[in-house]
Specification:
The chain has about 210 residues and is mainly beta. Helices cover about 5% and strands about 50% of the residues. The strands form five sheets. Strands 5, 6, 7, 8 and 9 form a five-stranded antiparallel beta sheet that branches. It has a four-stranded antiparallel beta sheet with strand order 1-2-3-4, with no helix packed on it. It has a four-stranded antiparallel beta sheet with strand order 10-11-12-13, with no helix packed on it. The radius of gyration is 18 Å and the shape is globular.
């Protein structure tokens, strides 16, 4: 049995799009939204830890040591590289960081004002391509970076972007539960196509439609 030293982070998840990377966090102050609620109400935030584990070697990395008031969200995998999401609440900034495995360090891809998002509820990185979004809150998807788009459809969630075609997943109870994939024009938000079935992103990055 291989012993993996994570210093207390014992719940690891596969990083979507990669068959080699897993990640885990200690959720010291809950998820990103709960940490924001603590900060806004004047309570201290227990900064969280995030580890990356490469399989099959079992190598553990802790790419960012957060400072007081900083909190890490769910990472993403893009173009063969792990990308990290960090919010600095005292500075009012969102940092998107590329992780370099060879050096164990990060470099900034973007520093954004936290004000671009109404709040941190479902604030996350998504691929492909690499985007910062808020999803499934107040019945809308907000695409925040690298471009801004607001879409409105009840219970709609980002799937992926392919050229000018934005794929989203939406669920209904009318009265039975069902799902479908919407294909939208990325520039206008117009629905071009509705495809019955359940969207699933596979660990190796494939997109499956279950019908």
């Amino acid at each position: 049995m291989k012993r993996i030293i994570t210093n207390g982070i014992t719940d690891l998840e596969p990083l979507a799009g990669s068959s080699e990377w897993y990640w885990g966090t200690d959720y010291a102050s809950g998820d990103l939204y709960e940490a924001e609620e603590l900060f806004r109400s004047g309570h201290p935030i227990r900064k969280n830890r995030l580890v990356l584990v490469r399989c099959p070697e079992g190598t553990v990395y802790e790419p960012v040591r957060t400072k007081p008031g900083q909190y890490l969200g769910r990472p993403a995998y893009h173009d063969g590289q792990v990308v990290l999401l960090l919010v600095d609440f005292p500075k009012g900034e969102i940092h998107i960081l590329a992780f370099h495995e060879t050096t164990g360090t990060t470099e900034p891809l973007a520093v954004l004002p936290l004000s671009i998002a109404d709040d941190c509820c479902n604030l996350m990185l998504e691929t492909p391509p690499l985007m910062l979004i808020r999803s499934g809150h107040n019945n809308r998807i907000q695409l925040l970076w690298p471009e801004r788009r607001d879409l409105v459809e009840e219970n709609e969630y980002f799937a992926f972007l392919e050229g000018n075609r934005l794929y989203t997943s939406v669920w209904y109870e009318d009265p039975d539960y069902r799902e479908e994939v919407l294909v939208r024009d990325y520039n206008t938000g117009e629905v071009l196509e509705r495809i019955p079935g359940n969207f699933r992103r596979m660990p190796d990055g494939q997109n499956w439609l279950l019908v």
